[in-house]
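Hi there, hope your week has been kind to you so far. Do you reckon you could talk me through the fold, stretch by stretch? I've dropped the whole record in just underneath, so have a look:
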Amino acid sequence: MRTKVSETIESLNQFQFNMLCEDGKAVKNSITYQMVGVLIGAFVFGQISDMFGRKRVLIIVLLGISIFSLLTANVGNFVQFLMTRIAVGFFTGGLSAVQGVFLIENIPKRHRMWVNTIVTWSPNYIFFPLIAYLCYTWRKLSLFTSGISLLACILLAFTFESPRWMIQKGRISEARNAIAKIRKINGDTNEVDAAHIEEILADEEKMYANKHKSSGKKYTFYHIVCTKTYLIWTLTLCYGVISASLINYGLLFNIETLSGSLFWNSSLYGIVRWSTNCFVGSSDYFIPKFGRKTLHLVAVVFIVVAVITISILYTIGGQNDYNLYIRYITIAVTAIASQLSLTKMMTCSELFPTAIRNVAISAVSICSRAGVALSPQLFYLADIKLILPYIVVATLCMIDLVVFQLNVPETKNKTLENHLPPKSERLFYRRKKNKSADHIALTSTSNYTS
């Protein structure tokens, strides 16, 4: 949210950098450059967090956001502004790739969805436009962003590192101490639970000693495609977040073309999105059969029907005749589209094991940011034909609906996996093994012939 609103405020203050209305596309293109920074950050910090821990990386990226937001407030020209915003985007990419995994690994499975829908980004969309309005200038808004990021960094210092990550790294004693302190804070004195946790930790310690020895194992992006199943999951989720980001941010970056106040439209979007999140979170908590795939199905059907309706309104009357309807439908579509990204991120966190969970989230985040980087260009298609962007949105949604429903299992209330499949199930291992067998057979035949 920090990135989007400050970019919007920047578009309202173009005159400070001697940029006029005809330079609007240059400003939109600058958003693409900033999103490239986000993409790179997701790639870099996702890998680093699997190696050095979630908490440490989160503190680093929040400090980076704070420092470069402070620098943004003091730039003297548009090039300096763009460079500092790319740096902010770089650290924001790391934040988006790591914070979701850190959250998922620290909360019970029954509470994953409602915490991610209600206590998360969405309320920012309601209050941040108001803060932007009160700040009045984008420089003051950047100072606010710097301060609030520093506060988050300080608060994070009082939290615990993810016990799951520590277990996966063989730091069992540290995980044991962290879990004991968390249980003490929660007032959990159940000795049966304590004994069960200790049994799990002992098993994990033995497993780590057998598999990793003293050298440890480094996991890379290869491991999220190392089996046929993983490959299908990864491709499906990556396509899904690219299309969701194109839809969500393409409409959001084009929100200034809608009737009404930019600030009111942004706040209205936040209200609709948070209300939707509250409904989704409540449904997930109280309705056992309302899982990730059900949410995905409902969201896609809504978006397709809505964008077709917008296309019809444009065709029969144009924007001026139905601007109020188009305004509210567009805001609703943008809010619902955010559920697609949420579903993909949640599913990804629940599908992949702890050893590569952040690498998987990082890969999905990279694809998401690639979609965001391309999204400002989506409505350039309207220069060809006004309804063309909406036709593209409907097509992307229908493809996503088919591949997600067919290729991805339901993950609601699924216990998080800690370990990868055995090497015998891996694609390249099997191929290598087969080649070795063929080589042995060929050698034996040659010896027999000779």
